[in-house]
């Protein structure tokens, strides 16, 4: 008799937490820093001024991303904790109602009444709070908020993304700073879109087109504003 082999699946949804923060951080690092560099360069600033502006954008942006992600995800974590505390209290004071509530969820998903109650009973006997957190509140180990992870991921990836247009500033002659930074940034954005799409199992070309479009728009707007104000001044 052949024994069935255990089938292990690696679902991409497990990557949502860090992948979102990583892609957002790197994308923002490239776009915001490159746009600022192009805008300052378009205003006829010298290479040293452009480089200083770029470095300042990297440091300030990385700190802003870390703080923003931490505050945002902490708010989500606080909400999850409050919901779990409320659910824990209801399980202690109204177990019969909570059992019916859980069974009703399974019936709405297609289980017969008797089977839904059996499933609810067995899951609640093992981990009542976990069953309600997952099936009633939509909170699981995969989707749970992790503020520190999100903050660190955003800060690091923002810094890496911002460093790419800065390297173009250092390597390019003054006359070619704007085209060099623009080209470098758009290539990096397209690559980032491809990597993020592949890691998340999405359409690669659609992701590349999306991030490249917004990159071009940001660069064009800031270059226009920089040139306008540089001319006025």
Automatic annotation (TrEMBL):
**Which CDD domains does the UniProt entry name for this protein?**
Nodulin-21_like_1
Intracellular or extracellular location(s):
Endomembrane system
User: Membrane topology type, per the record?
Assistant: Multi-pass membrane protein
Q: What's a Pfam family this protein contains?
A: VIT1
Q: Which residues cross the membrane?
A: 21-44, 50-68, 150-170, 176-199, 211-230
Instruction: Identify the InterPro entries for this entry.
Output: Ccc1_fam
Q: Which domain of life is it from?
A: Bacteria
List the keywords (alphabetical): Membrane, Transmembrane, Transmembrane helix
* Descriptive protein name: VIT family protein
Q: What is the protein's species of origin?
A: Sphingosinicella xenopeptidilytica
